[in-house]
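Dear colleagues,

I hope this message finds you well. In preparation for our joint manuscript, I am sending the FAD/NAD(P)-binding domain-containing protein (Sphaerulina musiva) sequence together with its predicted structure, so that both groups work from identical material. I would be grateful if you could confirm receipt.
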Amino acid sequence: MRIIIVGAGVSGLSTYLLLEKLLPPILGKTTRKLEFLIYDSHISIPAGAGSGAGPIGNTSILPPTSIKILQQIDPELYTLFKSQGFENHAFTIRSARGYTLAKLPTTTTTTATTATVDQKEEYAISCPHAVLKECLREIVGRREQPILHGKVIDVELGGGKSPDGNQKPRVKFSDGRPSVEADLVIGADGVHSVVKRAVFGQEADEKHYAPEFEGFGGVGSFIKMDNSKEKKKDEESVPDIIAKQKSAVVTFGPTGSFGYAAVSPLSACTTLGWWSNWPSEEIPSPESTDAAQVQKQLEQRHGTWKDPIIQKCISASNTSSVYPLWTTPKLPHWGKGGCVLLGDAAHTLQATSGQGAAQALEDSVTFSLLLTHYLSESLQEEETSLDDFDDDDDQRSTSSHALAQSIDSATKALYELRHERVANIKTQTRNLYFGRRKITTLWWEYTYYCFLFLVTNFPRIGK
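The corresponding structure tokens are as follows:
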């Protein structure tokens, strides 16, 4: 059984680790061998090697449910990731005028005397966006699984008939190398997914299923803060809300939002990640800005906001990277013809939701368990049915059909179990931004703060 994974990000690599663990016990009962081919258009990592990349990009905050998923995927992954991030016990929601609107715990309460290993209390972990991917690549490297450089430009769907049974999906590359056939192609290639384009055809590039600009721009970076007793005069201290209260902070105002959180364990020198999102009618272009212009725009949007940490982040800003926030419209399904879409390829959420990596992990676990279940059932049925065929060609055709049917069933079940959840997250995130309304008067601003108080303290209102 050959599985091709397009995209070496969170959903692609976590799915590899899960299937690499779950499938061998099932396939070991047959003559099938399990082979994975992981392709990424940006990197090539040989087996047994880590990528060695440093923290690049913005900040991610992984919720407690995702931390538990990491432990299920691989205990080494869980330990490695937790050692590189910061444990947040709460989210503090503030207004631009300095009012605290809500303080939300990041985990449910479990007493230490009754907690078991499975019930161990977990908290949200914040880290640079690249850290989770780097941890996954490190663990994949330890499994002696190479990540191959290859830009996939098209996928031929399976499902038709070939001389030796059911036609399998096949991926094509930009450099003209021979196409590669697989039993399953996993599209984990992001919002502008090539696999999604193959699944939906021309409609994937048109208004029906093409990525949508969410009407927001984003920018973010990191600053160093001194947490030592011998702090120099010109160095900033880690704020108490992080050092003592262990909270991430998100502030909302009439011109957007601004958030910050520690992205490394508290030590003598701690890194603080910050991010800003703002409503924009036009799609922001990274090429049209420089660091000074970005800093000026930050001052215009947030210069009067009361939180002094926000002002320190702005004054230290040296990034020139701005980015548009894209989402994926609701799709009627997440795969066919031996191809399945996971993570951003299936349901890109707003960056402001903070749920992109979390939902990618949930996709990976759900699909891996479903595929294992249906494949186990089909193999049991296959053992019975093959006894009725004397011809090798008939046996091979039946075997291929059973495998394709298992993949199709798992793909359909994934959509049924997951699509409403991600749709609800998208709706709730839009509600936090007042349905993307423009706030132009003081009356609307305070109405917005009242609305935020209600939807954060009484979540059912925001659904």
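For the figure legend, we might mention the following. Confidence is low (pLDDT under 50) at residues 49-57, 110-115. The first strand starts at residue 2 and ends at 6.

With kind regards,
E.M.
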